[in-house]
Structure formats: C-alpha cells, structure tokens
Design brief:
heterodimer; A: about 150 residues; alpha/beta; Cytidine Deaminase, domain 2; B: about 90 residues; alpha+beta; Ubiquitin-like (UB roll); 5-stranded mixed beta sheet; globular
C-alpha cells in the first residue's frame, strides 16, 4: 500500500516567523503553534504563534510546551475560527530531521515543522507527520505560498 | 452532563467532534465512556494496562488532575474536562 503524500503550504509570513524565532532562540530550541483555516491536502498554514520553551534542563537539545500554553493555543484557534494544525521547533546545530525524541512524543495529525539553525542563522526547514497505525514519521513537502500559487 | 474537550490531533478519532458530553461521576468514568464511544481513541489515551498514557494530561477546568484526585477527581454536571497532549521533543 502506498503511503499518503502530504504537502504543507506555509505563507511567507509563517516561513519568516519560524526562521526568525529559531534565530532569536539560538543556541536554544524554540517552539510554537501552527494554524490554518481548515485541514486539507495541501495543508495551508497561515498563522504561527510563539510558545515558551518550558523544558527544564538543557534547552539546546530539548523543548516542551506547558499544558496551560497548549490549552491556550486550542482556545486561540476556537476564538479565531482557525484550526491548530501543527507544531514547529528548532534544532540548533542539528539537521531538520525528526529525532527519536520527536517521534516518541509525536501526536497523530499534527505537522511537525523543524528548522535547523546553524551559527545563529536559520538553515533548512522540513516537516514531518506521524504515519497512521505505525510509530514512524513521513516527510511532508513544504511549499511557500507564492510558489504554490503559480502551479 | 460534563463536557470533554477533544484536542485537535485526536479529533480524527471522534469523527471531527471537538466535544463529548458525558455522564460520569469521575474523570476515569468519563474518559472510559469517551473511549467506548470512540474505540479508535482508546490506544491514544490508555496504555495496555488501562492507565492514562504518560503523554496525556487531563485538566478539569483550569486544574491539572495531578493536583486534584487524579483519575478519581469527581465531576459536576458543569465540569469541563480538557485532554491535553504533551508537546515535546528535541534534537
């Protein structure tokens, strides 16, 4: 059976938001929420909001979002007619590949966008989604909205 | 009837329903009723031993049940129960 192929479309503002946040937080990991008008394939992300990294310990290699911040993020979506569609975080000095720590705690459905930040500059950005029924990630293709609009 | 709020990533297992109304005296009873109504949700809430998964937190109103009576926390008819997935990871 072939696997689902997902495409994630980021608005240019969301793309810039994630990169800027990753650079500002470097050498620590940043994290935040991704929202869109509704789910679909392609999945469109039109808004990103920062979340505090609440991880106790080494934030250069780990991030955690506090439950109260998560609850607030769900309320934000409901209040603004948006859907919470994913989470972004940064990997300082590491590739934008989902790690075993990312996989262990991943939820179904969400897009997990990771930006690599090297020497304080945002580098590659990739997105991952948990495969149904199996504990593994599939990569999503990321498109930035203007490029997508041409096709 | 108490109300359970389903977090977005688990709504694919509830037919996209964001809320679930339930009669239940405790958090444990309410969550069990939810899992029975939506069996696909069960493995995402409970481990094989029937315990709440460590990556799932549950709030009643603004309070983490870990600070109340955990799964034995009583529910009123007006209670709002939130299922909160842990969001964490790293390189």
């Amino acid at each position: 059976m072939s696997r689902a192929v997902f495409t994630l479309v980021l608005s240019p503002e969301v793309d810039a938001h994630i990169r800027r946040h990753g650079e500002a937080a470097w050498p620590y990991e940043c994290c935040g929420f991704l929202y869109g008008p509704a789910d679909g394939n392609p999945r469109l992300i039109t808004r990103a909001l920062r979340a505090p990294n609440s991880k106790e310990g080494d934030q250069r290699r780990r991030f955690e979002i506090a439950p109260t911040d998560y609850l607030e993020a769900e309320r934000y979506a409901a209040d603004h007619g948006l859907q919470l569609l994913g989470i972004y975080h940064s990997h300082p000095e590491h590739p934008a590949v989902a790690s075993k720590h990312d996989l262990a705690q991943a939820m179904p459905f969400f897009s997990y966008v990771i930006v690599s930040v090297r020497g304080g500059r945002a580098a590659e950005m990739r997105s991952w989604r948990l495969r149904d029924e199996v504990r593994a990630f599939d990569e999503e293709t990321i498109l930035i909205a203007p490029a997508f609009a041409k096709h | 009837m108490a109300k359970i709020l389903i977090p977005t990533p688990l709504r694919k297992f509830t037919g996209n329903a964001a809320t679930f109304e339930v009669k239940g005296a405790t958090v444990a009873e309410a969550l069990r009723a939810l899992a029975e109504a939506h069996p696909q949700l069960k493995p995402h809430l409970f481990d094989n031993a029937g315990r709440l998964r460590s990556f799932i937190r549950v709030y009643v109103g603004e309070d983490d049940i870990a600070t109340l009576q955990r799964e034995d926390t009583p529910l009123t008819d007006e209670a709002v129960v939130s299922i909160v997935p842990a969001i964490a990871g790293g390189s």
